[in-house]
Amino acid sequence: MGHEVLGAPTPWAPPAAGTVVVYRGATVIDGTGGPARTATSIVTDGATIRAVVPDAEIADTTATVVDITGRFVVPGLIDSHQHIATPPDRATAEAVLRRQVHGGVTAIRDMADDLRQVAELGRAALVGEIPGPDIHFAALMAGPTFFDDPRTQQVSQGGTPGAVPWMQAITAETDLPLAVAVARGTGARAVKIYADLTADTVAAITAEAHRQGLAAWAHGTVYPASPGEVVDAGVDTVSHATALAQEGTRHPLTSYKDKPPIDHDRFADGEDPHLQSLFERMLARGTILDATAGMWTNYFGPDATDPEAQERVRANSRLAAGITAHAYRAGVPVSAGSDYENSPEHQLPALHDEMVFLARECGIPPVQVIRAATLVGAMSMGAQDVMGTVEKGKLANFAVLSANPLDDMAHLSEIEFVVKRGRRYDRSDYEPVAPGR
Fold first, then answer.
1. Is 6 domain-assigned?
2. Are 6 and 51 in contact (CB under 8 A)?
3. Which of 149, 158, 196, 352 has an alpha carbon within 20 to 30 A of 42's alpha carbon?
4. Residue 365 falls within a domain, yes or no?
5. Does one domain contain both 30 and 106?
6. Quick one: 191 and 244 in the same domain?
7. CATH number for position 408
8. How far is Cα 341 from Cα 435, in angstroms, rounded to an integer?
9. What is the rounded distance in angstroms from the CA atom of residue 193 to the CA atom of residue 206?
10. Hey, how many other C-beta atoms are within 10 angstroms of the C-beta on 393?
């Protein structure tokens, strides 16, 4: 190494251990799904929570005291389905990350991107060079026929799609231990199993990922592997509620590009027996559903200008709501993921829209929607030991609201400030960044 030099500035770094702050007087919705606790103090020490106790248990203290009487505290939100580098655009990504953390999102699960940029953004946000959530990310694996998809070219610039460490084509001849090790070398926490893979290959990738300490995150249907085969392979999460509609289809599942039509009428009453069987297996295995339920309405909806496109959006939105509601009733752990982000000039991150959709359209009780976007989100990343709830020993990640989200999930927008790893982000400091700035 050369001579020692100072690194980049870290204005958003967590406070040092021994920096104690008492947030006093809150109503705490802790992310477990339990009832809210009033008159509660949260004591933080550096980047972690030292205690969550009734106000009366806090004696006179020399620590900094922040009075949040009348305010509502929720754990830092976790968006369990994001893409922030397809294609890579550093300025836009930094604007999105800044908006996310000021909007209460303290961690995201990035579901395959150009990991060269994602890893650097994750490092910069972690050490405090830029404001943003923690980023847990996956390296993608799919069959060779998938890699003429334009998105794979966008995230493999300078390399060959399917032959870069973060985006690998898998065949029967692939050395899977080596492929998973290469994926792990990117810093990924998981392998994302995407498309054009048989059930046997999905199972083999999953087993090897687990052997090497990585999670396996998969699309709900991998084509030709069905939802049931994906779940039976032992993956940790499946993405997209609408993808599960292929379970029990009478059409052959051939390839990602040749998806069979969905019989929407099959799911009209919300109790399809094929899905009920699938959800029972997911519940037994602990498989998490990353539903992305509001994606059709909130992402595709604004671009649906002709009547046919509008009807497709409405039908898929109803399908997503129905399947997600069924999964929740069956006891399947549902996480809150958006699979998109609002453009940088928007005031709030897309996860807020997903949470409102889960409450209003899927009928999930608000306290359970908050759990979906906190504890279950942490579970989806294998990070529930350090985040996802407001409790002693976990990271000091929480949002302080001026209105009760249990009354209306839209009250999530009433953010006064966010604490991420003990560092405070005042909502009043946030201004949207328009494209080109």
1. no
2. no
3. 352
4. yes
5. no
6. yes
7. 2.30.40.10
8. 14
9. 8
10. 10
* Neighbouring-strand partners of residue 219: 239
Q: 111 and 55 in one domain?
A: no
The one-digit pLDDT tens for each residue of the chain (437 residues) are: 566 777 899 999 999 999 999 999 999 999 999 999 999 999 999 999 999 999 999 987 889 999 999 999 999 999 999 999 999 999 999 999 999 999 999 999 999 999 999 999 999 999 999 999 999 999 999 999 999 999 999 999 999 999 999 999 999 999 999 999 999 999 999 999 999 999 999 999 999 999 999 999 999 999 999 999 999 999 999 999 999 999 999 999 999 999 999 999 999 888 899 999 999 999 999 999 999 999 999 888 888 888 888 999 999 999 999 999 999 999 999 999 999 999 878 899 999 999 999 999 999 999 999 999 999 999 999 999 999 999 999 999 999 999 999 999 999 999 999 999 999 999 999 988 765 44
215's CB contacts (< 8 A; 6+ apart) are 138, 189, 190, 191, 209, 236, 237, 381, 382
Rg of the chain's alpha carbons, rounded to an integer?
22
Number of alpha helices (DSSP H) and beta strands (DSSP E) in the chain? 12, 18
Contacts of 228 (CB under 8 A, 6+ apart): 247, 277, 278, 281
Same domain for 400 and 301: no
Together in a domain, 109 and 233: yes
Cα–chain center distance at 131:
18
According to DSSP, the residues that pair with 237 across neighbouring strands are 217, 288
C-beta separation of 77 from 105 below 8 A: yes
Question: How many angstroms separate the CA atoms of 280 and 172, rounded?
Answer: 31
Asked if 123 and 33 sit in the same domain, the reply is: no
Q: Where are the alpha helices (DSSP H) in 175-334?
A: 176-184, 199-211, 227-232, 273-285, 295, 307-329
Number of domains making up the chain: 2
Give the pair of three-digit tokens for residue 232. Answer: 């039976």
Instruction: Report the alpha-carbon distance of residue 139 to residue 162 in Å, rounded.
Output: 11
Hey, what amino acid is at 173?
E
**398 and 350 in one domain?**
no
Full residue range of the structural domain in which residue 299 is found? 77-380
Residue 9 lies in a domain: no
Show the tokens assigned to 108: 């995201």
